[in-house]
Amino acid sequence: MFSLHSLSRSLLSGHLFFNKFHQSFAVNRALSLSLTDFCEKIEHESKNGDDEIRDPSKDRTKVIPVETSVRYMNSKAYQMTYGDEPVWVKYRRNFKGQFAPKETRKTCIRKGQIATGNPCPICRDEYLVPHETNVKLLQQFISPYNGNILKTSKTGVCRKQHIKLEIAIERAKDQGLITFDVPFRTYNYSDYNIKV
């Protein structure tokens, strides 16, 4: 059985443990709050200071107008680079190991510049702008057999650009810029009639 003395000792030790835990929790919380404030302050200072040197070939902060992209799709430079094939045909993503990953990367561009050594077909060429009026580019990502958008596993486009492509293709279909007719098949229904 418990004596009154042992019961008071256990209650006192529990109370002391709670006080020490509460004090250490308060100190840790104050320390973590001051650390987050410090990190936010440094981040704010780094955003304000434009002392970053960007590689011009990887810089993607410049916004390319859609009209420029449409002119580029009809230019000799585009023909020399890609020929008559879609932009994604000659692209092969680097990956570790024998098998390619199931999903493509989330994005190729971080903080306004290319963050990978092998960006996707749209991110690597800054003049390829997925927009509903850029029909020549959008048709390269549509299957000629069923009119569906090609998967990222086939095209190698990063997920961010794939979402932009999906939106642009749907808008182009809504505006009537892209049409797709399912091929009409004729059947001889006499082959399916049951003969008794």
Task: List the main descriptive attributes of the protein structure presented here.
single chain; mainly alpha; 7 helices; elongated; 2% strand; 196 residues; two-stranded antiparallel ribbon
Explain what this protein looks like in three dimensions:
This protein has 196 residues and is mainly α. The protein is 45% helix and 2% strand. The chain has seven helices and two strands, in the order αααββαααα. A two-stranded antiparallel sheet has the order 1-2. A hairpin with a 2-residue loop joins strand 1 and strand 2. The mean pLDDT is 79.
Mean pLDDT reading: 79
Secondary structure category: mainly alpha
- Major sheet: order of its strands? 1-2
How many distinct helices? Answer: 7
Using only C-alpha atoms, the radius of gyration works out to: 30 Å
Order of helices and strands: HHHEEHHHH
What would you call the shape?
Answer: elongated
Classify the helix fraction into a percent range: 40-55%
Head-to-tail CA distance between termini: 94 Å
Please state roughly what percent of the residues sit in beta strands, choosing from under 5%, 5-15%, 15-25%, 25-35%, 35-45% or over 45%. under 5%
Low-confidence stretches: none
Number of strands: 2
Biggest β-sheet description? 2 strands, antiparallel
What topology does this entry show?
Elements: H1 4-48, H2 66-73, H3 76-82, E1 109-110, E2 113-114, H4 121-124, H5 135-138, H6 152-155, H7 159-175
Antiparallel strand pairs: 1-2
